[in-house]
Every structure is written in C-alpha cells, then in structure tokens.
Amino acid sequence: MADESEWIKLPLDDRCIHKVWKARLHGYTEAIKYFGTLDSKSPEFSKFLGIIKKFVVDTNAVAQEKGLDAVLAFLPNAASAHKTCAEVSSGVVLKCLNSSRTKTKEKGIEILMVCIELEKQEVVVEEVMKGLTNKQPKIVAACVLVLRTAIGNFGSKIISLKPIVKSLPKLFEHSDKNVREEAKLLAVEIYRWIGAVFKPSLQSIKPVQMKELEEEFEKIPNKAPKQIRFLKSQQAEKEKFEEAAGDDGESEEEEEEARPEVDPFELLPAVDVLSKLPKDFFESIEAKKWQTRKEVLDNLLPLATSPKIEPGDFAELVRVLKKVLSKDSNVMIVTVAAKCLCGLAIGLRKKFNPFAVACVGAILEKFKEKKLMVVAALRDAIDAIFLTTTLQSIIEDVLAALDSKNPSVRSETASFLARAIRHCTQATLPKSVLKPLSVALVKKIGDTSPEVRDAVALSLGTAMKVVSEKHLMPFISDLDKIKQDKIKECCDNVELATGGGKKKKEKPAAKEPAKPAAAAAPTKSAGPSKAKAAKAKTRPASASSAGKATKSKKKTKASEESEKKTEAAYSPEDVDEKAADALPASMLQQLAHANWKERLAGMEELTTKIHNMEKKDIDCQLYVRLTAKKPGYKDANFQVLKAKFALIGILAEKGKFSRTSAGVCIGGIVEKIGDIKQSATAKETMTSMAEACGLQFVALEAISYAFDSQKNPKNQSETINWFTQAIQEFGFAAIKVKNFISYIKKALVATNPAIRTSAISTVGVMFMYMGAPLRMLFEDEKPALLAQIDAEFQKVTGTSPPAPFRGVKKEEKTDDVDGDDGEEDRDEDDADVGGGAAPSIQDLVPRVDISDQITSALIEELGDSKWKVRGQGLERVQTILNGNKFITPNLGELPTALKPRLSDTNKILSTNTANICTQLAQAIGPAIKVHVRTLVPGLLMLNCDSKASVRAASITAVSAWEEQVGLAPFIEDELLNTVLAKESPFLRMEVFGWLEEKLAKYHTLPSDLALSVPILYAALEDRNPDVRKKAQGVLPLFMMHISYEKCVKMTNKLKPSSKTQVMQILEKQRPNIPAKPEKPGKAKKTKAAEEKKRPKTAPPKTESSSTDTSPVETTTAPTTTTKKKSASKPKATKSSKKQEEEDVGPPVILNNLKDKRFRDEDNLKVLKWNFNVPRDEIIDQLREQMQPCVNSSLYTSLFHADFKHHITAIATLKEAVSSCKEASIGALDIILKWVTLRFFDTNTSVNIKALEFLQVLFNMLAEEDYSMHDYEAYAFLPYLILKIGENKENLRKMVRNCIKTITKIYPASKVFQFIIDGLKSKNARQRTECLDELGTLIDLYGINVCQPSPPKALKDIAAQISDRDNSVRSAALNTLVQAYAIVGEGIYKMVGRLNEKDVSLLEERIKRSSKKVKSAAPPKTAPAQESKLTKQDVKKSSVPHGRRRSSNRAPSNGSDRPSTAPSQTSSNIRNSNVPQVFKLDLDGLGLNDGDSNDNIPQLEDMDHVQDLLTDAVKLPERRLQKPNLTVAQLDFIISQIASNDIAISLQSLKQLDEALQDSDRCKVLTDHVDQLVVTTSLQLRMAFSKYMSDENTSKDVIRMYRCLVALLMSLFQNRMLATKASKDVLCDLVNGLITVLIDNRLESFEEGPQVIRSINMLMVKVLDQSDPTNSMCALLKLLQEYVAQESSSQKFVQLIMKCLWRMVRSMPEIIHDINVERLLLSLHVFLKAFPSAVWKERTNDTPLRTIKTILHSLAKILGAKVLNNLVLINDKNSEVELYLKKIVKNNRKSVGGDHINGSVQETRSHSSSSSKLASPRRASARTNDILAEIFKRIGSKENTREGLAELFDFKCKYPDVDIEPFLKKTSPFFQSYIERGLKNIATEREKAQSEKQRSKENSVTSVDSISSSEGGTPASQDVSTSQLRDRLKVLRARCGLDNGSEAVQESAPVKQGKPELVSSSSIESDTPSGASSHQSEEVIDQRNLMPHLYQPQRITLGSSSSTSSTQAQVPNTNVDDLRKRLERIKKGGSMN
User: Fold this and answer.
1) Strand, helix or coil at 1452?
2) Residue 1171: CB partners within 8 Å, gap ≥ 6?
3) I want to staple 464 with a disulfide (CB 3.0 to 4.6 A). Which of 241, 450, 458, 491 is the partner?
4) Would you say 553 and 514 are in contact if contact means Cβ atoms under 8 Å apart?
5) Cis peptide leading into residue 1348 (ω within 30°)
6) What are phi and psi of 1739, to 5 degrees?
7) Are residues 571 and 473 in contact, defined by beta-carbon separation less than 8 angstroms?
8) What is the reported pLDDT for 528?
9) Which class for 1197: exposed (0-12), middle (13-18), buried (19 or more C-beta within 10 A)?
10) Which of 715-724, 1078-1087, 1353-1362 is predicted with the least confidence, judged by mean pLDDT?
C-alpha cells in the first residue's frame, strides 16, 4: 500500500499505526480534528486506547510531533484517557524528552502536565523518577525539568515531594553540569513551596552547592506561591483562580493561608538504630563497672538522637534504658539514658506510643533526684515522650506522682502537667481527664512547698486557657479569691503551643456574620435581636456560599442553644449579694439555722414564694445555690432535704433551669438517691431536670458522679434504675448511647449484685430499641455474664418499646427566630440523635487506628518474591484485623500492598486477600469508600479464575463492600465497565449474577451504568451458555434503571445480525422488568398518616402485618432476606394473582434434583451450609434450590417476612409429609435447611411448629426405612443441637424427641459425634443436655457408639467435670457412670489424666450410683415377642424406637430400655472389662439380605441324638461384603495415618492395606495417591525424629516402620496407582526412606536389619513402578538439595546417586515412558546451580559425572533428536545444551562406539558388525512373517513356552533384526514377560552347555577332597579347603545364588555391615560411565526376592574392593561340611 490512494481509504485508527510515516502523519492530523467532535464518553475513543502510546514513540520526527498534538487532543476530550496515562508517560520520558526538536520536548512536557490534571500525578511522577536513573544525561536533565514544572504548576499538595527530595543528593552529584543546574533550580522551586523545612534534607550535599542554594533561597520573595494548574476534580478552585486573576488586592493573611504546611520530619531519611547496635550491647549495659555502662550509652546516644528513626522492635531497648534510669546509682549514666529516651521519642514519634506509659511512670518517680543535670534531662525526656501519647493514657501515673511524699516529685509533676496541657486542646482534654486532674491539683494548691503551689497554679491556669474559664470554674469555685486570681493570672500569661484562640481571626470573611452575636453574648436581651440581624445578613449570600451560610446558621443556632442551656456560674459573693436583694433576711436566717425545724419552715416559705413568682423573675441558679449552702445536701434531717429536692424540681419545671444550675445539685441528689426515704423524691427531681436540660446531660452527669466520685453501691444501682426508667419515658432518641456504654460495662462487672442486676435491666431496655446488634458491644464479657445478658434479651424479645411521654421543654416561639422547632431546638449533645431510630452500631463502637501496626516490614513481606513470606504477611494482616473488629479507614500503605496480592499467582494467597478485603469492609464500615478504587477492581478480576472457591471469595468480598458503600462507586469510577470489558466467561458469569442480586434494591444509579450495556449485549450472544443465562437474568434490571427505550436505542450500534437477536431477547424480557423500589423518603411519606399517632421511638411496622414485632425479628438474618426480596428473579406482576389462583398442584414437587445438589456439594459448586448467623448469600442459594421443588404459593410463604406465613408454610409441609411422601423425601435436604433458618427466629410459635413438623417428618422417614444422607445430617443436626440449650423446657423436650427419632434413620454413632461437638458451646444448659443425650446413647448402644473412638470421646466428656456449672458437672459424671457400667475399671484409663479433684468426684459418683459392671452371665431366653420379628423389624433391630428419660438420664433397669436396643446380657464380649473398638454392621456386611441362609433349623427326634453328635457340624454360609470406601471416609483414614497416636496410625495403615489388596476398592485411591504418600512420609519422619528419641515409643517404631513399608509396598506394586505419585511427593518419600536407611539407631533393635532390608526392597519397587520421569526428577532435586548443603551426609548422597545409576541402566527400556523435556529441565536446573566450574574446587565430583552420564545416555539412545527436547530450557548458554551437542557431534564421528553404560552384550554386537551401522536393520518380509508366527504362538496359552524358545533361536540366528516394532504393539506387562522368558531360556541353555564341564570339575574336586580327608598334612587340608571354597563360589554363581567374583557373606553376622540401597541388577556391578571410579556397594534384585515383605531372602553382594575383608570374616569351615554343601548344590543343578 505504498500508493497514497490506497492507505487514505483505511480507517483512521489503521492509518495512525500504518508502516508508512506519511500515512501516520495524515492519520494524526485527522485524529486531532476527529477527537474534538466526539462526546467525552463516546465508545470511539476506546479504539485508540491501545495505540495512543504509539503516537508518542513514533520513529519519524515529523510524524511524532503531530502525534503529540493528537495525544494532547485525546487526553482532555476522552473520559477514559486516564487509563493510558501510565504508558503515555513512559513513552514521553523515553522518546520525547531526549528529542533535539524543542517543540517535541515542550509538547511532551505538556502531555505530562495534562496527565497530572487527569489525577494521575502518582503515575507521572513514578515514570519521571525512573528517568532520573537513565544513562543519557539529556533525559535526566529533562526529567528534573518536568518535576520542577509540575511542582511550580500544581504545588506541593498535589505533587508528593518526599521521593523527589530523596533523589536530590544524587542529582547534585551527577557528572553532567546541566543535570546539576536543573537540580539546583528544582531545589529552589521546592524551597519556594515549603520554605525552611526543606533545608535539613540538603545536609548531605557539598558545602559549595549549599552556599549557592542559600543565596538563591534569599532571593525568593516572601510571598506564598499559588497553584496555577488544577486537577480535574478542582474545577471550583480553577474558577476562583480565574476570577481572581485580575485582582491584586489579596491580603497577606490569605497568602499565608495558601502556603501548605509540610512536616520536615517526613522529608528526613530514617536511621536504622537497631541494626547498628553492638552485638554485646545488652550484656555491656548491665556490666558491673560503671565505665562500661557509660561507654555503651555514649555510643548509643548519637544513634538515638537521630532526627528520624526507622520503626522497629524497640521494646527490649526501651526496657533496658528504663531500668537504667530507674535503678542505676550513677547520675551521669542516668542522664545519658534519659537523653537516649528523649531522642528515641523524638525520632520515633507516634511509634514510641507503646512504651510511653511505662517510661513516664519511671521518669516521674526519678524526679526525686536533686542533681540539676539529671532533672533537666528528665524534663526533656518526659516532654518528648508526652508528644507520643495522650494525657488520658498517663493520668494514673500523674495522679500518683502528685500524691508523692517527695516535694520535688510533686513540683516537677505539676510543672510537667503545665507544659503538657499547653499541647492540648478541648478535644484532647475532655471532662473525664480534666475533672480528676483538677481535683488533684486543687488539693495541692495549698501545699507547704512554694514550688509546688506555683507549679499547680500554672497547671490550672494553663488548663483554664485551654478549656475556658467557664468549664474550669466548677472545680476551683471553692478556692479563695486570692488563689483564683493567681490561677487567672497564670492563664493570662501562658501561651499555648497550639496558638489558643488566635487562629479564629485569620478568616474574617467566614466569621463576619457571627461577630455581632459573639459581641452580644454577655447581654441576654440583645442576643436574639442581633442573632436575627446576623442571620438576615447571611441569607442574601451567593449560590456558591450557600453551603457555608447554612453551616454558619447551624453553628449560630447551636451556640445560642448552648447559651440558653448554660450560664455563668455565680461565685459565693454573688450568691450572697443576690440573695439579700431577692429574699428577706429572716428567710435567709431560717435557711441557715441550726434547728431543722427552722430550716424546714424556711424551705416551705421559699417554696411558696417561688410558686407565686413569674417565670422570667425566677433566678434558678440563685435558689439552687441557696439550697446547696451548708449543710446543703448533707442535711441530717430528711424532711428538710426532701423539701430541698422538691424545690429543685419546681425550679426545673417553672423556671429557666440551666445546666449550670443542674450541675450544682446533681451530685447531692445522687448522694441521697439510694436513701429509702429520699429515693422517690430524688428520682422525680432528676426527671424534672432532665425535662429542662435534656436527659443526655442529666443522666450522664448523674451516672458519671455515681461511678467516679462516690462509692456507695446503693446509689449506683438506684441511679441506673432511674436511667432505665427515664429511657422508657423520654425515648431512645433522647440519649447518645456511646457515652453510657463504658459505665454500663463497669456496672456489669461490679462486685455488688444489685448494681449488676440494674445494669442488666438497662441493657434489656436498650435491646428493645436497638435489637440484636447491641450484643456486639458486650461480646468481650465473661461467658457467665453473657448468659445473663442473653437471658434478659430473651425476656424482652417480642416486646415493643413504650411510647415516650416526656421530653425537653420547648422554648416559647418568640425565642425561635426561624420558627424551627422540634429537633433543632435540642441541645448540642442531642444534635446527632435523630427521631426514634436506634443509633447505628457502627457509631457506638470505638474504632482503632491500625496504621501504626502496618509497618514497612509488613509491607515488604506482602511484596516479597517468595509466596510463603507473602502468606505470612497476609496472616499478620488477618491477625491485626481479628484483634480489632472496628477500625478507622486510615490503613497506611496496606491497600496498595494488598492490590497486587489479589492477582497473586498463588490462588490460596489471592483467596486469603479477598477474605481480608471482606474483613476490612466489615471493620471499617461506610468509610471504606476511600479504598474502592484501589481494591475493588482486583476483587472483581478474581472472578476470572476457574476455581469456584476463589470466585466465591471474590463475590463475598465485593458484596461486603457493596453493603457498606452501595453500588454507585462501582459505576461512577467505571470499575464495573472496565472489569466487564475483559473477555472471561467466568468473570462475566459471576459479575452478571452478582448484579442480578444487587441492582434490584436501588432506586437510582449513576448514568454511567449505560456504559456496560454494550458488554451486556455481547454477553447475550456469548458462546458460554452460563454467561448468556446470567446476562438474560440481569437484563430486566438494566432496563429498569436505564429504561427500555434507551436500551433499544443502544442496539443501533450493533451488527444487523446481532441487533435482531438482541432485540428478540429485549422483547422477551420486557414483561419481566420489575418496578423500581421506593425511595426511603417516599416510603416514610406514604406512612406519615399511620406514623403520626405512633411515638418517634417506636419501631417501624412491617409491611405484611399490622401487629408489632420485636426488633430482633427484623434484624435477624432470616428476615433480612426481605431486603433482597426484589433481587430474586422478577416475575410478571400482571399474572401473579392468576398464578396463585391456579396453583392447585401438590405443595412439594417430585423431581430428581436431589442427586444433583449432592454432586454440586461434592464438587464445591455451592456454598457450604455452615454459618453462625444465616448470611444473605446462603439464603439466596436456598431460594434457588427450593424454587423448583415447591409450588409458588408455598414458596412465597417459605420466604415471607411475616412469621405468620412461616407457620402457614410449616402446616402445608406437615400435610405434604403424608400426601407427598416421595416428593418430601426428594426435597428432604432443602426442607431441613429451611427449618434451620427458622431455628434462628426468636418467635417461639415458629420454633414449636417447626419441631412438631420435624417429629412428623422423621416418623414418616423411619416408617419408610429411609437412611439419612450425610449431607442432610451435616446441614441440619448442628443447628438442631443448638436448640437443645433453649430456655424453655417444652422446646428442649421436643428437641430431645427429635434426636431420639433421628437415631432410627441415621447411625447413632454419627449422631454421637454431632452431640459431642455441642459440648463446645458456651451455653451451660446446652452442654448439660448434650451430656445427658450422650449418656443415653451409651446406655442404649454400648461403648462403641462413642466416636471417633471411646477413649477420645470419654476424654472430652471427662473434661466437663471441671466445668464451673454444677448441672454440667453432674451430667458429665452421670454419663461416665453409664460408661463405667459397660467397661468397668477401664474407664479410668480411657478418660486419661484428670486432676485429683475430678478423679475423686468420679469415684464418689460411681460408688454412690447403683450401676455395677455387667457380668458375663449366659444370655437369657429371648421373649416370645422377639421371635415374631418380621424382616423389616430385623433391619431396624439396631435402631432404638423409644427411650425413657430419668432424672440422671440413665435407665435404672433393663425394663427401661427399648425393645430393639441391644440386649444387656446377651453380649459376653461387651461385658468384659476390655473396651471394644469394633462391632459388626450387619447391614453393611450384607448379612440382612433376603437371600442369606438364615433359615431356622428343624428340631430332630431324640432317637437320632447320637447320630447328630457324631456328624460334622456344618456352619451356615454367610456372604460377607466389604463396603466401598467413600471419599470422605478415605480422606479421614488417610489423615489418621499422620496421627500422634501410634495405635490410631497403625489402625489406619491396616485399613488402607486391606483396601489396596482389593482390586475393586483400591480404585477409589486413584485420586488420593499423593495425599496417601504425603501422610505416610510425614509419619515416617515422625517415627525417625520423634518416636526413636522417646524411650516410651521407641519399641513401637519397628512395628510402625514395618506397617508403613507394607502399605507402601502394596501401593507401589499396583502400577496404576504408583504412576500417580508426583515428583515432589516422591522426593519427600525417597528422602524419608533413605534417612531411615542410614539411621544407625536401628542396629540396636533385634528386627532392625530386617526393616532395613524391607526398605531396600521398597526403594527398588518405588523406582521400578513409579513414573520414571517423576522418579528421576525427584532424585535430581534431592541430589541438588543435599549437594548444596556442606554438612550433608556423604552416605546419603551416594545412595541417591546409586538410585540414579539404576535408573540410567534401565533407561533403554523405559525411554518411551520418560518425558525427556522435563528430565532435561531438571538436569539444566542442577547444572545451573552447580556448573562444571564449581566442581573443580571440590574433592568429589561424582554428582557431576552422574549428571553427565544421564545426558550421555539420553544422547546415545535418542541421537540428534534429543536436541528437539530442549524447549523448556530458555537459557541460551545452558550447559546441558552445549554438552548434548558435543555428544551428538562425537557420535556422528564414531558411530561404532560403545553403547550406553558399556554393557557387554551391546559391545559384542557392535564389534561383530563393525562395518554396519549401530542401529538394527529393518526386518524383511520373510522375517516379518516368521516373527508374526512366533508372537502368535507366544500369545496362546498352550504354546507360550515353545514360542519363547523359537524367538530366542530367531534372535540368535538374526541378531541384527529389530523386533522392537512387534514388542511395541503389546502391553508393557507382556513385554516384560517376554524379556523374562528369554533370559530364563538363555540361563537354561548356558547350564546345559556347561553341564559336562561341571561334572568333570566336580569329580576332580571329589577325588581331591577324599584324598585329603584320608590322610594329609594340615597344609594340604588348608589348600583343599580353599579350593572347595572357590569351587563353591563358582557353583553358587552359576546357579544364580551369588556372583562368582564376589565373596559370600551369607555366614557373616548381619550387624557387621550396614545394609545399603544399591541397584537392582544382580549381574552388573560396575558403575555407569562417567562414574566408574565409584563402586556400588550392595545390590538387591527384586526378582530374586520372596514376595513376603518381612522375611525376604536377601542376597548381598559386596564390592570387589571388600573381597578380602569379607573372606577374612568367613570362619574356617570343616571340609566335610563344605563337601556336603557341594553335593547338595550339584544335585540341585542336575535337577534343573
């Protein structure tokens, strides 16, 4: 397409990436115009997203410049432009900044600035920072210029300066001058923005450069810089900047305001102090010599005083320094230690917080030191430490120090307080801290020491400055005027660190409207009018300032209300003055009279006077203070005191009663509220005050005083009782629960029971308003207390909260400026409490800031390259979250670190990360929204995974986030659109399914949802049916939000064929569009008329019922499904009524979906039915499963919100049990699941009906002989057992009946397991009932019902003896008594070790009980009824039909037992003291089948008795069937192999060995081979490391070894199973076997050598039978690991190499089974880790030679083809490839060379045909016919032997003919059979040929032996003996009993030499080529061994080097013995 006419016709995007630069230039030009015409969200922009980077990096300079213009046109116009910023920035840095064209460079910089405007500043800075390390100075200088430009344009708030400042020192040291100059300009620009705080970061540059910078810094004007370019989200600021561009009259205050505050600490480099500590630091600091201690601390001081310290574990260092500071007697050392602590606190800042409290206490105590040098250091230290903590944390130590006897400590403590309070604000100095401090300081202001008095006054003055005089005066009002003046003087002189109130004047524009109101505050009459004027001024504000005006209005309103509620406190002088003016002197005298009658008369007169006064004339504070005057509220006369309280009540009701007045009297009232005479009046008075000042204020003051300032428990309990009543009278909206929770918790744990009872009642009342979430606040309490709280909750469940009839008195309407009454008139404390709604639990719980725990080390772990380290990091994060249930959204760098873990290659880590995200959403709450953009895309992308578990974790996490932040952030940020754009069927299927649930509950969603519609249309045509199904399901919801018309309009962009199909689907789904849910506001308006009469605090009514339901019912999980009711599949609203009318079919529908549900559970396709509280996704899943199984009317009732519908549904199901039995059985699993949901309902009626239904259901199942499936039991029984702990006895009784019936349809042993799990409950009643049920089961079914084993179960039961609940202990003892009646004294062994107290309780209970061990008496005659059992009864004979409950749950005699229970006297074996582990399951063995021979024999006549006695007894034949193992059983048995209990492990090994022996049952193991081998290897290691070293278990090791080897031998004898073992598993197995093989400790055991021989045989079997690739790769991996360890055993390495040599020898036979590519990769990995050059430095290079031998063998066998198998090796310089090429090249040169391993047979064949090629020639047609005939004979059973003989002759005659093609057509087993047959024939013919020669030798030997025996010298006898021995060796070798060249070791002691693992060939003893110098030691040939595992006939062949030693060990045997042995051998040879 070189012609212009051709490329100009191409689409625009194709032109932009054309190979011709002119075409690209034309495309860029057109693109500039085109981009300007498009809408920002046009899909056309998406075409350029992937190619926009190519515009920037164009190779043609002219085209590149135009391309940059196109990018500048693309970025501002495209809504999705931010997605390309990373790659565009990278391209600009690399290809534009180094351009020689100025415009190109400028445009590149402009592109980067635009990217920053798109809020991608982090990405741009990151890419530019990468450019700073470029080798081209030109790029580096340009990057610095970019950074300077960015900071100048956007400022330091937008551009993070921290990484830039860190890189500056390197830039100043750059070799290029231009770079240094740009760095200088950059530094000046940074200084212009952040000022002098920048200087400490430049300390490392050269002095000359620093001097130049200082000069430049001085030239910078003092005017603060301004941001001139703005982000996309800063459009409002941009408009203001443009408006103010022409104005130059900005004030200096505004300029100062604009300067950003930068903490210089953040810019400093951190110093790692811990790593620089000397190794002996902690030893030296505790040395006895003070000089040593001083020297160590002097060395530490420079490190500790570093400006910024790297965080770490400083606990030990701080502990040591604190110890030195506290206990060292040397003042110099103490001084240095204090300085070190000061430096650490300054350098660590908030990271020092964990150690602050301990250090403060030590320093305060050390202030007793008189040395000024020490005191000064201590002051600096404590001041620095205080900045890391809060005053509230150290208040206890401070108060203790103020009470110290040492005046120095008191004065320094008070001085420290003054300095500390300077750093506080009103928020950090709350009343809870101010009050105790003020009280303690006021006590010390009269101290004898003047220093203490001055310091105390300064502290109080500073506190007054912080909290204002109004808040401090109540605490110092009792001081005289001189002291108060001194405190006020200190207050005036002190300067706060925070600047006090001076900053309020910095914003005059914002505060102008409030000035008149503030100025008029002291005068009450002028206040309202000026407030009106202020508000009138704020109303005509512009639209832009409307929000601020509203806020200022609210603040003014709140301040006015606060002024109304509080007033200035009167001093005693003021009270006296005002009282004299208002009251007559006689009345005042009466009030202060000593006679109580006078005082009473005065009070009555005063009360009458106030009754007659007008409201405006009543000065409430004056009269309240008069009542408080001495004797005040401690008046001894109750009548006077009662009159005072009554007067206060009148003042609160009639006058303007302020909080100041209330504060005067609340304490006195609380002091008397516990008095029986004053209690009623005191409570009424407090109620009146609450109506005047608000319940929040009065209640909080009263409760805080009761618990903080006085200790009378009666007062505390009565105060709480009043508060409880007040809540019900005022309503829950009148209080802020958060303020009271701490006091309620304190009352709950009080020692006084009355206080606890009152607190529990209060919690119960709060529960009526808040519901179940309230319990979350008390989860940390003790179980016993929680049980009491739960009981209280149960009492009030179903009770509606009463309507409030009290409230805060409203002010007159004339006082309300805007007419806003109601909620706005409440005080400031009540402003946050709305209506009658209960406060959110999220707002009540305290939240923890975990940012300090997210350390840099943790972040590094999360990003580590090793998955295990990353996993540990995630576990640490989970630990942090588990320890903090509610946290703040401040997570530091955690979200950024978690983001890559969501896409981790390790799926387990991805799943764990998703679970962590779920925890984060639940712990943070709605504030998690700030992290949506960081984590949610990764969570959604997890759905691309093929594993259902990963996707389920992702959906769970995303749902948790959606619940907190809603769906809008997902759509607004285009997260949803971006994720769905990825073409993954799993992702789209899961996300569309999730959207189908979530979209329906939203009324409105952002319009960006329409961006996902094209993807939805594509999914409607997807090839995957599941994607199409989910897309069709969510389509109606998209149409609900977007509208059907818009969806139709959007199909115009589709292809015609696609449009037609999509339109059809739209039309089909149109009727299913659901109605939009109502807005919350609208729903309230529609119910306004109904709610008018209801109190605001009453709970909302349900839609379905007019009756009031408890809050618990509306908050529990089952009823929360109503929230997602609309999320279910929508149905046509028009036809819904018709469907209900026409639905007359059966309620339960019969189908075959039950098996599918079970398969789905097997394959983990559905969520497990396992939860503490039902989750929404669990309920939705049950909905889907239930829908096809029931009719629509029943379905509606089952999942309705109203409990009445549930009762109707249960009644329908009960009827269906009898009318639709088969259908009920088919849906049994989901019916039981639905019933478990009802167990979580708190409505008792529903629970009773559900249990009645279960009883009917289980009775029907028992009649039908139904056997409950495990999945049904697992989904139901745990939740049924939860109900056994109910408070109501009738419910518990019904649950017990259900369990009794369940044992008829489910094995009692399995029911036992579920019940014993119930013992883990915290509910004592549940534990008691479970123990009773266990005792009944043991009594009915015997001890074998205890599972998993009687000892284990009885141990768990015995553990309950020590329970604190008496009923639990009694039930546990009764259950053990039942077991004792069966097993006798063996019970003590079974329960294990108990403490003495528990044992004594058990013994006492056994003695007291009437139970005795059942004797082994002969069985009694069965009753007549038992002989009449039908076949059906026989089947049920193992199931009890009924049982009777007694007081101790144990039947007292046999008559109490059910008729079908096992007989108490018929089982002699069971009655023995030995506990029985096994019992026969007749059904499982098939002995109850109808065809079994169980006919009753006929009785014979007495005449034939003698004949009967003489005849043989014929036992009836029984057909035994071994049940097949299920997957769950198999997993359990395999897991038991690794048990710590040797007996359990051996039992599991036995069961698996039996399964392996059965060909049918062993098939189940096909998918569990790796699991089996892993657990076996684990037990092998445990036996080696744990049991061998333990004297108690070492005797069982041999048995363990034997059983393990037997099981593995059985496994690896099965070729099919053996090949399933993977490489890593084989590696572990071989490692364990060889480790045991070289264990010297086995020699000390009698059967140790036999175990070694067995392991030797097993190793051979493993290498022969397993997959050869996996075997060799495993051996290579093992060899590499042990070669890498310098301390590894050489013996171990030798044995590994011998295994490899064995594999090499058999390589020609197994080459077709070897994956050569994988093998070469393993060899490459070995040589890469240990190349040939490494071995030159090693003494032994046998491993290298072994590796090369393997390579040589592969090259010899495969030839040049071996080079085609190097695809997995990506290293071009691989040593494997070079070596193979070398071998192949040499082979081509010398074709007739030796074959692999230098085998004799191959060498001969090559030497005989040296002129021919090494490969065998192809057989001719004639030979083919002969071979075909021979193989045909071999295949027949009759002629097999002849066929093998003919094949042997054929091979001898035609040695060069290749028979391999014929062998390949047969099975591997047949091939090995032919090879063995040919070897046997060869052996037989060699024996036949040498028979004559042997006979001659034997005859000569006989003659010599006879002559020597007749008469010869001893010397001749020796000679003959040696000759006989040599002959014997030759004969043994020829007979196959030994190698003729080796020494016989048969008579050698076994323990002399350690048996070792060697190759299997008994003929070849040479090592492979390349390792010939290393001789093999001992050889075992599996073919020559007996099949029995434990008694093999082992033939050991020593090496040639050990022949002499072996011969020396052979004793001098008598010649006669040798002669006899020789004769036996000859006879054996002749017989053969």
Assistant:
1) coil
2) 1178
3) 491
4) no
5) yes
6) -75, -30
7) no
8) 35
9) buried
10) 1078-1087
Question: How sure is the predictor about 565, in pLDDT bands with cuts at 50, 70 and 90?
Answer: low
pLDDT, tens digit, for every residue of 1140-1159? 444 556 888 888 888 888 88
Which residues pair with residue 237 across a beta bridge? Answer: none
Q: Which three-class secondary structure state does DSSP give residue 2?
A: coil
Distance CA(1801)–CA(918), nearest Å, equals: 69
Q: DSSP character for 1382? A: H
Backbone angles phi and psi of 260, in degrees to 5: -70, 145
Per the CB < 8 A criterion, the answer to whether 938 and 902 are in contact is yes
Those residues with Cβ within 8 angstroms of residue 1417's Cβ, 6 or more apart along the chain or in another chain? 1465
Whether 1333 and 1370 have beta carbons less than 8 Å apart is answered as no
The answer to pTM > 0.70 is no
Backbone angles phi, psi at 195, to 5 degrees: 80, -150
Amino acid at site 17: I
The predicted pLDDT at position 1888 comes to: 74
What is the Cα–Cα distance from 1730 to 1685, expressed in whole angstroms? 12
Backbone φ, ψ for residue 1214 (5° rounding): -65, -40
1444 has pLDDT over 80: no
For residues 1974 and 1740, give the distance between their C-alpha atoms in angstroms, rounded to a whole number. 10
Q: What is the mean pLDDT of the chain?
A: 75
Residue given tokens 């993977």 in the structure block: 1622
**H or E stretch including 47?**
none
Helices 985-998, 932-941: axis angle to 10 degrees equals 120
226/1144 Cα distance (integer angstroms): 77
Burial call 288-302: b when 16+ CB within 10 Å, e when fewer: eeeeebbebbeebee
Compute the distance between CA of residue 189 and CA of residue 155 in angstroms, rounded to an integer.
10
Place of tokens 């099981």: 1607
Task: At 298, list the tokens.
Answer: 């002097």
Using alpha carbons, select from 1297, 1291, 1285 the residue that is nearest to residue 1330: 1285
The answer for residues whose C-beta is within 8 angstroms of residue 48's C-beta and 6 or more apart is 13, 16, 31, 74, 78
Between the CA of residue 1870 and those of 1367, 1661, 1834, what are the distances in Å?
Answer: 71, 19, 10
What pLDDT, on the 0 to 100 scale, is given for residue 633?
Answer: 86
C-alpha angle 355-358-362 in degrees, rounded to nearest 5: 130
How many Å apart are CA 1180 and CA 1177, to the nearest integer? 5
The distance from CA 1830 to its chain's CA centroid, rounded to whole angstroms, is 67
- Peptide bond connecting 631 to the previous residue in cis, omega within 30 degrees of 0: yes
pLDDT-derived band at 1410 (thresholds 50, 70, 90) equals: low
C-alpha R_g of the chain: 47
Q: DSSP 3-state assignment of 853?
A: coil
- Is the model's pLDDT at 1979 over the cut of 70? no
Count the alpha carbons within 13 Å of 1085 in the hemisphere toward its beta carbon.
Answer: 5
Burial pattern 1615-1645, b for ≥16 Cβ within 10 A else e, equals eebbbbbbbebbbbbbbbbbebbbbeebeeb
Report how far apart, in Å, the C-alpha atoms of 165 and of each of 190, 204, 1247, 1285, 1686 are: 9, 12, 68, 65, 46
Min mean pLDDT across 31-35, 42-46, 136-140, 537-541 is at 537-541
Q: What DSSP assignment string belongs to 559-597?
A: HHHHHHH--PPPPHHHHHHHHHHHS-HHHHHHHT-SSHH
DSSP one-letter code for 261: P
Which of 1034, 1037, 1044, 1042 shows the shortest CA–CA distance to 1066?
A: 1044
Phi, psi at residue 969, to the nearest 5°?
Answer: -60, -30
Is the pLDDT assigned to residue 2027 strictly greater than 80?
no
Specify the amino acid at residue 1844: L
Token reading at 929: 């929204």
- pLDDT tens column, 1721-1774: 888 888 888 888 888 878 888 888 898 899 888 888 888 888 888 888 888 788
